[in-house]
């Protein structure tokens, strides 16, 4: 039996290194075993079905809604009003969509089922190997020295990581050999010629013509018969590897990196050896009860919700009306010319500050005549900052504060979006260019059409969310969200 790394093993080793009036807004009260009222935990801000939304989740989502999405095709996008209640209602409605998707049995969708299977297996393998390798990988200083001798350019931390990876690989292969025997794994070579023939058929004679010659996921789902999908290529105690499993694994490999010898039984077996590792590791993980791990179950539930939400949203908008006509596109453009013209543009330089006190100090030093670059070097969170152009869609709710200033004016302290949060900054306005309206040209058609369809999709989804909020009872704890403001920073 030949042992090779597959994606799950390598993945582990890499890790190693709106308020609706029809809804009653109230504090729900439960009772304990003694019959005394016990309020919901204070961090819960909404409930629907068996889902709860916490204050921390709301804050994170609210910030995500506020942070601009830097779309090179929509520089003019203005930041709309965003408040905690509006965002929370959307979150509740999305939970309702997930509940509806579960009711419709969308988890039985083959693409969702396959994706969740891979996700769960990957997590189980990581849990298993993490537990197995714990405290087993030791690297001495002497070993590091010897490794560096083979390549003097290696840093010690890099040399240590390479040694750890090598040792982990050997241990994992040894572990796999043991559990391979433990689960009585057997390969059914009699079926390998069938794989060769089916692989050739999908590769050379797809039902749907395609420019690039490689097997795609939808072929595996749609062109294999149920009998073909269930052809057994290997067995192990209480489990099996089928032709579909083999093809699913193949499709996870980027086409340029796929084996070139799958037209031979030997090539089929070689890939099967790799495919087998995951289910064998998973079988061992389950035998140890790792599939009951509470953290894992939460991760799986979260991934299910993400897949279900995406699926039900696609289903709801898939029958969107026919694409707009040329006349409709031109009419929409003429009604929204400012959104497609040259945006208001500011050229700025800035100093990001740790807190308001630092920002005030920076402003005072600049007002006293100190050089902007030298002050940045001393105080800024980003030492290598340089002037750049910024737009309404880049600055979001903060653009209007910057636009009030004039060229050569130093503004601040003012807030800005810094990475995934908000920080104080001092901004120097270098240039200021008003936006310009453009007339319609044919090269604008794609952007105008995209914006029209996005608005149509959002309108459909908003209507659907409101329908589901009437269908599924929910609760909002309004008093717990009234003071939430992610832009409020020290």
Quick one: how many beta strands? Answer: 12
Shape: globular
Helix content: 40-55%
Number of helices: 19
Going by helix content, strand content and strand pairing, the class is alpha+beta
- Counted up, domains total 2
- Strand proportion, as a percent range, falls in 5-15%
Average pLDDT works out at: 88
Distance between the termini: 61 Å
- Rg over CA atoms, rounded to whole Å, is 29 Å
Q: Let me know the largest β-sheet.
A: 4 strands, antiparallel
Low-confidence stretches: 1-5, 15-38
Physical arrangement of strands within the biggest beta sheet: 9-8-11-10
Give an account of the 3D structure.
With 490 residues, the chain is α+β, with helices and mostly antiparallel strands. It has 2 domains: 1-183 and 291-340 and 441-490, no CATH class; 342-433, Roll (Chitinase A, domain 3), CATH 3.10.50.40. 51% of the residues lie in helices and 13% in strands. It contains 19 helices and 12 strands. The strands form 4 sheets. A 4-stranded antiparallel beta sheet has the order 9-8-11-10. A 3-stranded antiparallel beta sheet has the order 4-3-12. Strand 3 (44-48) and strand 4 form a beta hairpin. Helix 3 crosses helix 12, helix 3 (84-103) crosses helix 19 and helix 15 packs antiparallel against helix 16 (372-379). It is globular.
